[in-house]
């Protein structure tokens, strides 16, 4: 955090999650009882302005076969010094999430659960778990709807570019 040449200053609140900063790319798969299973390519980007206690987040996915865009979302991650985190996400589908959870800097994991899901008539709950192991970022998204109990919906493994 010395601000020296070639080193970006990271806000102290963001420091425990600084390992996320950058662009990650890979592949994932999804499914749910009410939809057909599918695979996708994905890019996640975490950026940090330096002077604010926040990480900007953006995500986009595409069909592996054609490169055609599928889903996109963006938002902000706000880690707190006590190990809790707040995340807001706006999806290209119009759905918005306010997530709360915790992070473990030593084990490079973030666990989130939805506090509020807006503009979603069917989705009742969303959880997201992110982990970095051996320089690979993986996540699992679980979802509950008005017709199904909470169960896996998406999972992916990404490598930092």
TrEMBL record:
Origin superkingdom: Eukaryota
Stretches assigned to the THAP4-like heme-binding domain: 14-160
InterPro entries: Calycin, Nitrobindin, THAP4-like_heme-bd
Pfam families documented for this protein: THAP4_heme-bd
Reactions accelerated catalytically: peroxynitrite = nitrate
Protein name: THAP4-like heme-binding domain-containing protein
Origin species: Centaurea solstitialis (yellow star-thistle)
Classification of source organism: Eukaryota, Viridiplantae, Streptophyta, Embryophyta, Tracheophyta
